[in-house]
Amino acid sequence: MMERAAALDAADPLAAYRDRFVPAPVVAYLDGNSLGRPLLATRDNLVRFVDQDWGDRLIRAWDEGWTETPTTLGDTIGRVALGAAPGQTVVGDSTTVMLYKVARAALDARPARTEIVLDTENFPTDRYVLEGIAAERGATLRWIDADPATGVTASQVAGVVGPETAIVLLSHVAYRSGYLADVPAITAVAHDAGALVIWDLCHSVGVVPMEVDAWGVDIAVGCTYKYLNGGPGAPAFAYVTTALQETARQPIQGWMGSADPFAMGPRYEPAPGIRQFVSGTPPVLGMLPMRDMLNLIDEAGLDAIRAKSVALTEFVLELADELLVPLGVRVSTPRDAALRGGHVTLDHPAFREIVPLLWKRGVLPDFRPPHGMRVGLSPLSTSFTEVAEGLQIVGDELGQQQ
Q1: Do 94 and 173 share a structural domain?
Q2: Catalytic residue among 226, 291, 308, 340
Q3: Which of 18, 104, 321, 377 is most enclosed, with most CB atoms within 10 A?
Q4: Could you say which of 29, 225, 239, 384 is catalytic?
């Protein structure tokens, strides 16, 4: 096992990128799909920002670039990670707030329709936000009862959308199982019914290549602290296709999304284009780390990152079959790489108790109820040896429970 891991590391064309990250005093960091590790460049750039951009330029820096960071950084995310042309992606609030804004805008853009389609296995924020909007706007929720071990398919969506469907909200990669949805097919089904689709890209952006423009995506949201390594609480992004920007009006009308913020006018007039989806003062400091990671992704190439991601998850499945399945572990992630994102979920009734013990031993996966352990693999910072050592310790702890 360790010999095979060493051979995989020796053959890894992205191995050198691991040296770009701040060293972590752990045996195995297996939670890169929840919080990406910081880059050495980020540490240096944060100090430089304090000393120069903030410390030297002070308030003048707003006129020297800060005000435009939501859209300039949004364009970088679009180009590097989304397959989106400029002028359609903006960075701003938390994922929850960004989702609220785009979902309200989408619902209001289909005023004659009253139904919202979503699935039972989606991340809580997605479900909670849509429940709140439905109550607020008098809309009806239509639920897809998704299989926790797989995800939502185009045929399931076709079975629930209709002339009353305003929006469909789904995740590109399921947060529990890691199931990779067929975005083009599902989007086409929703469009055939006259509905708009919102894609949650939180668990796919930065690790799964995508072409949102070519796929006909209407709207998407995503966080930046997972595979984009923006750090805890890093602001999220929203993508709104150019075709919708004239009709979709976001509901949180803040001064920084107005046509002329510093006119301090008596009435709100939205800024043209994607800028209107900004509300308050841009979180400039919170945007710095993701810029460094986007540069790294751009340098390495998202196709190469996806190739290593597939290799890492294949290795996890191989080790799970060898070390953990005999101990009663069930693999709850698709084995077909074409249906799998960047993490693997393993289920066992003892994982709730075992994960804290693993943390004490320097192995850091995460736990998702009722009994799932997610092995999250960030390709540029994770080695095969790290994975092998970590899962071997998982097997040791499980063995002690039996």
Answers
A1: yes
A2: 226
A3: 377
A4: 225
200 is catalytic: yes
Tell me: the pLDDT tens digits for 289-326?
999 999 999 999 999 999 999 999 999 999 999 999 99
Q: State residue 309's pLDDT score.
A: 98
Provide the residue range defining the domain that includes 336: 2-30+301-401
- In contact, 27 and 382? CB cutoff 8 Å: no
Q: 12: phi > 0 → left, psi -120 to 50 → alpha, else beta; which?
A: beta
> Residue 123 catalytic?
yes
Rg (CA), the chain: 22
Question: Among 126, 237, 374, 384, which one carries the catalytic annotation?
Answer: 374
For this structure, is 368 an active site residue? no
275 is a catalytic site residue: no
Given a cut of 80, is residue 402 above it in pLDDT?
no
pTM over 0.90? The answer is yes
Does residue 50 sit in the same domain as residue 80? yes
**Neighbouring C-alpha atoms within 13 Å toward the C-beta of 321:** 7
CA distance 348 to 296: 36
CB 401 within 8 A of CB 350: yes
CATH label of the domain that carries residue 322: 3.90.1150.10
Q: Which residues contact 209 (CB under 8 A, 6 or more apart)?
A: 83, 302, 303, 306
Each residue of 339-383: pLDDT tens digit?
999 999 999 999 999 999 999 999 999 999 999 999 999 999 999
Note whether 289 and 308 are same-domain residues.
Answer: no
Considering the domain boundaries, does residue 178 fall inside one? yes
